Amino acid sequence: MSPLDESAITAMQSEPQVQQTVAILGASGYVGGRLAPRLLRTGHHVKCLVRSPIKITSRQWANHANLEVQKCDLTNETLLAEQLHGCDVLIYLVHSMRSAHGDYHEVDNQLAKSTASACETAGVKQIIYVGGLGDNDDHLSKHLQSRREVEDQLRSSRVPVTTLRAAMIIGSGSSSFEILRYLVERLPIMITPRWVRTESQPVSIRNVLEAITACTGAVKQYGKTIDIGGSTVLSYLELMRLVAKDLKLPRRIVIPVPVLTPRLSSLWIHLVTPVDAEIARPLAEGLSNRVVCRDNSLEELIGHKPDSAAEAIEAAIAHARSDTIETSWTDSGPMPHDPSWAGGHVYEDCRDRHIDAPAPCVYKAISVIGGGHGYYKADWLWRLRGVMDRLVGGPGLRRGRRRQRMLHEGDALDFWRVLHADTNKRLVLFAEMKLPGTATLEFSIESTDQGTRLTQTAHFRPRGIAGLLYWQAVRPLHGFVFKGMLDGIRNEATRLAKEISTAI
Question: Taking residues 202-227, what's their average pLDDT?
Fold first, then answer.
């Protein structure tokens, strides 16, 4: 069976005997964003409890009749219990990996404990948790130990917990795979930590989703801990060579050395890949542990042989090439609130253009900015700004975008986050680069008798004297960069309109 054919996968998945009401915590993240539509297709009623409902309501499956989306605050145990009332199963995919302050494990433990208590109060029958592989006597990394502690906290109530322990998850858009792919693409020669030779048993995102689906509502899986891994055991070094082969790159030269600490490794990953150092560090720490399944439980659970690492990598690269990445690691994290411009001076740079093209063509021309397409003008300046941002700990331009021609609320777009995407009317981007203030870039489209009026407005609310100096420093560049972007959008929209006219 081809690892790329999602419809075939769904068709082969047997229908559950009893349809469940399933709550998902973390439905807007990498795994949850793929799991929710799969559960809906298998007939379950799905309740997505998320911090930012707009991330779900912008998905293609958001209007499904069996879907509920509610704003959730895990620190409010009473409210969470009310929201979980009537749910049969809770799938717990909440996972904090940002270790800048070193206390992410404490936060995770608190949230897991209060969630378990809320489940017991609400009468939930089963909790499903996706944790990490590794034995307790293997001197687990801080990251993997935290996953184990969360598991213990979820078991603190009387609700049975089904734990799926996984090693690296390979799939298009996953943080682990993005680190792997970028290292291989950008570095023909690599000086690496010794852990590149540590054995692991990576699992495809497809098999992870199959395993969760198979456990949902399955009484015989209550209280069980199941190791899930692919069909091959290999080192990170061997994984890199498989990626190089699929990307049709020359064999990479890897030189393991004993002096690279997880901290140094994470900083190096931050500079070379799109993944932030805060996320890279726990991942790098976890790679020092041997993570191999103790049995073949996954094959028994899903009813067929799991994908090999080579098959998972092939599928991930194919999805990236065909621009069909369903979810990305960049989807996670809170949505910034719409900036409140009251209570302080806000600087604006407002420009507009008349465009001899209909609104859909204009919106389409706007929607492709960033990623591999660029910004129509002075791309070298945007790249320079991205490099500067990476050097000070920001995301830079390497996050790119999940889809090259479509934008939804909550999507990452280089160092922006999509706040609003009102098709053919308005697009608002929130700046997530390191700034001494708060910034948005807004595009407003208005249809006129003669065509379309496009207004582009940059808002900046400075923070202290550094913010004021920053605005004055970049202001001269706006006339060049933003004017060029507007002209490029106008030219592209006009071209699209002519294509449509010619086709008709």
Answer: 95
